[in-house]
Amino acid sequence: MSRRLRTLMAALCALPLAFAAAPSAHAADPTTMTSGFYVDPDSSAKRWVAANPGDGRAAAINASIANTPMARWFGSWSGTIGTATGAYVGAADQRDKLPLLVAYNIYNRDYCGGHSAGGAASPSAYANWIAQFAGGIAGRPAIVILEPDSLGDYGCMTQAQIDEREAMLTGALTEFNRQAPNTWVYMDAGNPRWADAATMARRLHEAGLRQAHGFSLNVSNYITTAENTAYGNAVNSELAARYGYTKPFVVDTSRNGNGTNGQWCNPSGRRIGTPTRTGGGAEMLLWIKTPGESDGNCGVGTGSTAGQFLPEVAYKMIYGY
């Protein structure tokens, strides 16, 4: 079946969903418009394997990590953002594959935690950045995880700062709905250890969840799929009770194969989880964080920076030690 015909069929089949409780603004299903998920040819794992073919760890990292579909993260390091997202989704589209993207540039990013602090220079700068992000994707199919940790990172923020952040997220969703009609956007809902389900449901709703396709859980964390699924269902129960709608959710399973030991920043003894696929109690299980990429200068990644690929950590994650 041609891509154009698949697109038309997907849109027609999805039309009844437009009248369900609190749907996203998108009629088309990007997972039916493509033939599987896109493997980033320039991921940190791919680059390391290519640069170190004689390393004894390279074969295992290549087989178990580098060739698994994972998200590419976009932020201030990405250059002209519309060009960057356009090139990435364009490359995936040429291969009839579905790309996973993470938007990670919100103003006052990681304001309380600090390990990944940064982001746009102002709310208006972020609005411009995210509009270009969405415009680069345009009508091509994609999945976007919107600003990991943005709704869990409230501990040290004033109400004015919270309102400002929620307005930025609402504005971002408006841009995706306007410019990227074949993109599913998931607002990030943190993880089960961060905020109770009722609190997270309220934050999601106030930040515009009605406009999104769904929400994401466990991004860059280690908590089991079962615990995340229970939490996602609890969030949906709160959404239904308080606001009259529910949303699908996805779980980042990239590093949760051994669950968590209570530490979030480069803990030892973790393991890769279920590769990207649909099902498992969530709408999809995705690799959003690259296994082996550092969480920051901490734990087994002492001396590293956030996002740096650590081959020894990656190798140990394959075998769980």
Percent of residues in helical segments?
Answer: 25-40%
Uncertain ranges: 1-21
Report the C-alpha radius of gyration, rounded: 19 Å
Number of helices: 9
Total strands: the figure is 8
Task: Summarize the main sheet.
Answer: 8 strands, mixed
Basic shape = globular
Distance between the termini: 45 Å
Instruction: Name the helix and strand elements from N-terminus to C-terminus, one letter apiece.
Output: HHHEHEHEHEHEHEEEH
Task: Give the topology, please.
Layout: H1 3-14, H2 44-51, H3 58-66, E1 72-74, H4 81-94, E2 100-103, H5 123-137, E3 142-146, H6 159-179, E4 183-188, H7 197-206, E5 214-217, H8 225-243, E6 249-252, E7 277-278, E8 284-286, H9 311-319
Parallel strand pairs: 1-2, 2-3, 3-4, 4-5, 5-6, 6-8
Antiparallel strand pairs: 7-8
Summarize the structure in words:
- Its EC number is 3.2.1.-.
- It is an enzyme of class 3 (hydrolase).
- The protein is an alpha/beta fold and 321 residues long.
- Helix content is 36%, strand content 10%.
- It contains nine helices and eight strands.
- An eight-stranded mixed sheet has the order 1-2-3-4-5-6-8-7, covered by helices on one side.
- A hairpin with a 5-residue loop joins strand 7 and strand 8.
- The radius of gyration is 19 Å and the shape is globular.
- The chain starts with a helix and ends with a helix.
- The N terminus is likely disordered.
Task: Please give a quick description of this structure.
The protein has helices at 3-14, 44-51, 58-66, 81-94, 123-137, 159-179, 197-206, 225-243, 311-319; strands spanning 72-74, 100-103, 142-146, 183-188, 214-217, 249-252, 277-278, 284-286.
